[in-house]
Input
Amino acid sequence: MTIQPLEILQQTYGYDAFRGQQAEVIDHVIAGGDAFVLMPTGSGKSLCYQIPALCREGLTIVISPLIALMHDQIMALENLGISAGAINSSMAFAEVKTIRQQARDGSLDLLYVAPERLMMPEFLEFLDSCKISLFAIDEAHCVSQWGHDFRPDYAALSMLAERFANVPRIALTATADEPTRKDIVQRLGLQNGREFISGFDRPNIHYSIVNRDNPKRQLWKFITDNHENDSGIIYCISRKKVEQLATWLREQGLDALPYHAGLSAEIRNKNQTHFLRGEKVVMVATIAFGMGIDKPDVRFVVHMNIPKNIEAYYQETGRAGRDGLPANAYMIYGMDDAAMQRGWINGGDANDKQKRIEHQKLDALLGLCEAVNCRRQILLKYFGDASEPCKNCDTCQTKPEVFDGTVTTQKALSCAHRTEQRFGVGYLIDVLLGADDERIKRFKHDQQSTFGIGTEHSKKDWQSIFRQLVAQNFLEVDIAGHGGLSITEKGRNFLNEKQTIELRKPQKQTTTEKLKRKIKTTNTALKTEQDKDLYQALKTIRAELAKLKKLPAYVIFHDKTLIELATHKPQSLDDMLAINGIGETKLKRYGQEFLDVILIDAKTA
Ligand code: ADP
Ligand code: ZN
Output
């Protein structure tokens, strides 16, 4: 009799039941169907191909973009007693030969390769000599040029459908909007398969976006208030900023490391490994970092500048809280970010249509930054999901106040108009406030009707107002010139059609205070002092074992499993099997060590 998926889930992985659409996907793929799977990060996509790999006869090829991470993935599988290997350019010939032998003789269940390897004629021939049961294409959004991580190597994967017509294919991703989805299905020839699209929500992630004021101070307060003992990722816009910030954080005593494409592969790998293995490591990085990072206990993701678009934002923030425990996404946003992103789009070599799409995507992101309603609702709507206000984001917790901004907007736009639409925010505000300024006099703008008509708002207020008008695309920043603001078509329509508008009252910088109460809930399951102590003792033994076996701590057990052990306190190895995340192999390998800690604790309590 063949082994059932549920038995594998329980015995090998140590989990009670499938989540969401996992069971459906798995049944469909085991039966030989093609599938496109869109599920949020941390929802358990890997099982959707790993379990079919174990149930179907033959070898499953997993196509994964990052060689550097294959090793950890394979260690995690081996730790569950699953036979998996990789073939990549960093391996010695003898090692490759062994893996190939195992692949051919059927002793290997999963083989991880990068797309460029897969496409080598010699490798394809080798695959012909194996019995292939399934192709799993991970991070499938890389196939599409509408996706935000397009990789040309991935595009070549379209040949799988022809060359291996009888082998089912499953493509998996956590981020893809409608056009990207269609593109992936078409390119990978999955039209006859099924699409499994789960909700995008990551309820355990708290979202907040604050205006840039003093970024270092804002960051430092955010970390010290909420995440002093946690691992996190901080995204910066440039390599230089990454280096500076990492150095500064180290000076403040944090275990912070830089990561960007300008570092040698050796250093990048070293830093990445340190981050993956460590428990309180902060990675300061450009967007070069993060794809395929499976570290489950990343407790926060900070953006020091705005990301490229909402998909990128969701993907990047999605690296927090994979283990389902509370996590934080915190963005520090300023209007110059928007100008910079626009400049990159315009200066890029995409065609006009593509550029227009990219500008629209950026507009959607700016709308998110300036939102007066639930951030999560906006995010989910962007991906096509309707939802209620979440109560777990900054705008839900502290509703931004709005005011009728119709007259204010008229003043701002006419001021730009009367100064020939070639001056930046600072100048326009000076004119609106009637400042005594040489330049204004020289250009005779003190004689315009808009001079001094904006004194009902402060300078700071006006900055916020202009930011919103740019975010809502009433004004645009001329990046090629000197940052002058000009009125867009939408802005002209607003004036001509006498439309009305609500604006957000300038944000007060109290967000981190509010966050504090909400977020220190990671361990709320640990109610008594005794549970907390036991949890720490279990963490200590886990750290020792991890060091001994040269494994990331979470590969041994997740925090969630330790929390359950500390609260349920199983008294025998058999009892331990009932804990989430403890399957047969892990029980055999580590059960006794952890049980001893629990039993000793019970005696001394
Ligand atoms: P994704 O690839 O979708 O980001 P993973 O496959 O890495 O997510 O799974 C996230 C975590 O959830 C992993 O630790 C995984 O073992 C766990 N997990 C997956 N499926 C289940 C399940 N049915 N029950 C409990 N935990 C699960
Ligand atoms: Zn909300």
